[in-house]
Amino acid sequence: MAFSRISKLDPPSRGIFRKAAVMLCSLLTSLFLLHCLADRCSPSPVRASSRRAAGLFEDSRSPRTKRPAYEWTAGSELTGYGAARRSSRVLADERARQVSEPPEESFILPPPDLVASSRRVSPRFAGKLSPLGEGSKKLPQALIIGVKKGGTRALLEFLRVHPDIRAVGAEPHFFDRNYENGLEWYRELMPKTLEGQITMEKTPSYFVTREAPARIAAMSRDTKLIVVVRDPVTRAISDFTQTLSKKPDIPSFESLTFKNRTTGLIDTSWSAIQIGIYAKHLDNWLQYFPMEQILFVSGERLISDPAGELGRVQDFLGLKRIITDKHFYFNQTKGFPCLKKAEGSSKPHCLGKTKGRTHPNIDPEVVQRLRDFYRPFNMKFYQMTGRFFGWDD
Description:
Structural class: alpha/beta
Distance between the termini: 153 Å
């Protein structure tokens, strides 16, 4: 009787055991699959950060599994595991936005050798990274190369009124004193310009620097050159006056002019005299630039007719004549024209106190000797430029 009762209970016991075994196997199988999936989708932190930071495309376990290239926009950095994880989320968000928004300009993360050599965006991308409308720095397309005390500062200030001209205020002295710093250093000194604007600078000592023409030609043979010239005798006296204001104990103008006052031999080694031999310096420039790329501005006409001379300069630069008579008024005290409105200002503007100094009285005989000395050089200069400046009248 007892045996029969046990027999009747056996079938239910075996069924429960089988069900428990099936459930246990299913649970183990599920855990195994979850483990495999987690291992495949979540590589180790060290491997993920190193491979992502290097910008590689393939997973380390499966050469057939492609990973997307990470994008590096300006100012972003990838350092450490946390940054790599964040960059992955950013990339996912970016893909979602691309459906409705145009892609922004970005740069693919460079390979490890380039990352090692430079941790920042290359300077050549600087213009591309600038906000729209801000412009970029360019090497100058036009230079005011001379001459000292000829009126270069006045010309530069007048030209800066033009909306299509951007110019450096200070004299860079790149092609005579700072050439070893390189063109990138020079470019960084320039103001930012937009498309169609001209970058300019002025350094009057370029005209008398023997190495300057070759160096400028090496930068660009298309560079336009502007030379402001003035009666060489008046220019020499003005040059001396400027030096005298800084060094009151220098010798007199007369003693510096002559090697020997008795014989009347002019000392051409004195820079104030040497600069005025324009034909000699121009010969050097014509070895590298054709005459049509050089414009000569009259320092005298820049005072008597500034709008007329500025018109010639604007034509030479290929610009619309925007600077006209309405921009100038004549300052009786200083003796030269001033701007009614300077660049970036609504107020009248005249050159500083260092401009328009009163010249000392020079012995008329010395002045005449200098005029005789310069006359043949002036005549040659008139022939070379095809323009008569009237310094010998």
